[in-house]
Hints:
CATH topology of the largest domain: Rossmann fold
Low-confidence stretches: none
Distance between the termini: 14 Å
Largest sheet: 8 strands, mixed
Mean pLDDT: 90
CATH class of the largest domain: Alpha Beta
Strand content: 15-25%
CATH superfamily of the largest domain: P-loop containing nucleotide triphosphate hydrolases
Structural class: alpha/beta
Bound molecules: adenosine-5'-triphosphate
Amino acid sequence: MSDALLRALSTVQDPELHRDLVSLGMIERAELRGDVAQVKVNLTTPACPLKGQIEREVRAAVLAVAGVRELELVFGAMVRPPAQPPLPGVKHVVLVGSGKGGVGKSSVAVNIAASLAADGARVGLLDADVYGPSVAHMLGQGSAKITANTDRKMQPIEAHGMRFVSMANLTPAGQALVWRGPMLHSAIGQFLKDAAWGELDYLIVDLPPGTGDVQLSLTQTIQVTGAVIVTTPQDVALIDAARAIDMFRKASVPVLGVVENMSYFVAPDTGHTYDLFGRGGSRKLGEQFPLLGEVPLEIGVREDADAGRPAVLAHPQSAAALALRGVARRLAGQISVRTLADLPEQLPVV
Length: 350
Ligand SMILES: Nc1ncnc2c1ncn2[C@@H]1O[C@H](COP(=O)(O)OP(=O)(O)OP(=O)(O)O)[C@@H](O)[C@H]1O
């Protein structure tokens, strides 16, 4: 490594982590070949929301070093696990919850997972909404069946770049589940621990709506990185979202951010924007939670879900898909912030 380049790179801060790239262990290579600098930066997540800014600042710093005429810059990514990973091979478990049903929690969970996977992360999705599992349908895998692998573990189903497990793929279609708390507790534990998740950067968990047994069970079974709250902007939804936030607080689960879904509607024929439920209402939940994004109500989101393809993949340029991509990247950023805040001053190079 070139000392001059490292000195220059140590003046560049990660904009979210407020620490320099060198002490964060993000510089894998910094070499001078003649007057060409070759630098490799490992971001803390492949879904880094501020990659463009980091790239600009690295360029400016390196090209200001005496004798450097050109920069060959490559990016990699390495998601850092917390001091205590939640499950072997799984770095982060993130819960997606809502105070009330029908606000689009599963849609948001599926699109966050698909978006992180599209950015290059290794992603799992656990459908813990055992009473109303809709993830399998939204991923076009409603009739797939979960099988056991040679170690007698549940083999997650692969779709759209992620692995997922859903009760819908274990029970015959159309049958209701009539389980009580202790059975649910053991089912969730099995989904987490007896599924062959393999190596994952993020395991996204779609919770049932509300504040019941499954939510508690999950927070007691493993150390989760945090929770995302999905809400719509009207007061009745926000009251329930506040209750969900309170539940996570009592269970010592950090709230990583809030997603305002069905935030507004743009009429496709006139282009007029309607704030059907009062856009921006989720700010009433408090300033302490980052707003991860405002996702418009869009017919395509529902159509894509029913066609079994996440909107972020099916119609990546739609306003809803772009908002959902932003949600996933901001969430990944928040996870890095949480994790690195708890790690030592000088991190090893990854
Ligand atoms: N932004 C959106 N625009 C249009 N339709 C949406 C949007 N978000 C969700 N939907 C649709 O609303 C319906 C409910 O969404 P979803 O199942 O994701 O909600 P949920 O909160 O998980 O529900 P439940 O709590 O009952 O499981 C679905 O048909 C979904 O396709």
